Amino acid sequence: MKKTCLSVLFLAAWGFAQTNEELLNAGKNPENVPMHSMGYDRKSYSPLNQINKSNIKRLVPVWNVSLDNELGEQGQPVIHDGVMFVSNARWTYAIDAGTGKMIWRTAVKFDPDTPRVVCCGNSNKGVAIFEGKVFRGTLDEVNEHFQKNFWADGMPVIPPTLNRVEKFLQFTDRKPDEVIGPCPPANRLATVWNVAVNGVMAGCRPEYMPILLAVIEAIVDPVYKIEDAGSTPGWESLIVINGPIAKQLGFNAGQGVMRTGIQANTSVGRFLRLFLRNVAGFHHAPEGADKGSIGQSFLVAAAENEEAVAEIGWLPYSVDRGFKAGDNIVTVQSVVAISAPTYTGSEKAVEHAELIADVIGQRACGYWTAIGMVYSNWHPLIMLGPSIAKVFAQDGWSKDDLRRYLYENVKMKASLAERYAYYCGQTGFRVNNYVKQGLLPPVYGESDDPERLIPVFHRPEWIGIMVAGDWGRNQSKGYVSNHIQGPPVSKAIRLPKQWDALLQDTRR
Fold first, then answer.
1. 20 to 30 Å CA-CA from 377: which of 10, 65, 146, 329?
2. What is the pLDDT of residues 259-279, one digit of tens each?
């Protein structure tokens, strides 16, 4: 199997400000050429003015050096602190830019099975420099380096070459060095640049860039509490996408919506997990801040089936979140548990509601309701299959009607809520005490009987409802929130001015 020789700016994924600054200002300092084309705008222009129309005829060679390579040259040199670095299919050189004297060279090593003639011959597109290091490597070497340094998720990644990153940057009007926000606990800065880098690594397509930026805007919002993303319950971030962009970019909203296998859903979900590792610092213990006792993971972003929503006469989940129908919206929230698949079958909405209340409400959500009571913040999400949602709509139920039913009919013993809270570390929690303090509504304290039934869902409006999945199956599922950690945060997806033209170019 052919191995491709690549030059990769490895550590740019981390977003160190002092390092990015030099790269982002490439072309402004003519003493150094730290990247190809003199900067991200690819103007290949130097502000030096010593050479002009009047003296160009006097130019003469000062030095020359053989690169000892019969396979062809395609790599552009980069220059840093007076040293020129150039790479080809045989060697990587460090050359004194003033004298032409070779400082060092290292051989490019190929496996014995590497073809000697491929397309236009073996070639190398040049090196990358970062923090005093020069990077060059095969695809296998790049991935080995990433894994050793905990910069990946245990699976192979796409090397974030400058060329690949630049393609992502074309799909936003925002500057690469724009700071989106800090990412605790590591407190590194999320930037447009490192969003693109991690998007490349995750296997995203460049046109996903506006979605990736909205995802990171959501998680750096202080409301989201990203600092708790490595807490012991091991909650996972769930992405929900609304708007025409989901269909434009090929997101699956139907059968197998939460399965891996569709590039858009899978790579965007993987991107967030990589970003949480590489920028926020949620590595496995003891190297990082991820303290999930057992943990869980699902590397899939969900898209709502808005065609089904329109057909049954409901409004999209994004409208519940405060936006207009037709807006491109990303919502990110925590998920600490997932219910069993809930099968319901009837022409009556109430019969579907009864089973959803039992399987999703009572069994999946019941345990965590106590913690929601403690923190007065809890946002479960119910994903209804389209055929189930249609029955509700045809029977005259709105989403608010379903929310109200669940609030009024899903209940548990007060003593059991206190017991669950105890085992979750809230040893002093008492339902009636919280009612007296105004932290719970009066309905929770109607008596002192520890066996009285109290609502599992604290507020009906906190229950999220979306429609997705297989039209031909009568299945729904519940995604249980933690509490104040990772509540739903929604952000508008900002498209570049030339969105339609850029999207068309990708499809040629």
1. 329
2. 999 999 999 999 999 999 999
Residues 254 and 378 in one domain: yes
Residue at 369 is within a domain: yes
26 and 118 share one domain? yes
* Secondary-structure percent of the chain, ordered helix, strand, coil, rounded to 5: 35, 15, 50
Six-digit token string for 419: 């017991």
Residue 207 belongs to a domain:
no
Q: Domain total for the chain?
A: 2
Number of residues assigned to the chain: 508
Whole-model pTM? 0.83
Q: How far apart are the first and last CA of the chain?
A: 28
φ and ψ at residue 201, rounded to 5 degrees: -60, -35
Q: What is the C-alpha separation between 337 and 479, in angstroms, rounded?
A: 6
Q: Which two tokens stand for residue 365?
A: 């959500």
- 145 and 227 belong to one structural domain: no
pLDDT tens, position by position, 320-347: 999 999 999 999 999 999 999 999 999 9
Please give the full DSSP string across 374-402, using - where no structure is assigned: HHT----EEEE-HHHHHHHHHTT--HHHH
| Per-residue pLDDT, 13 | 36
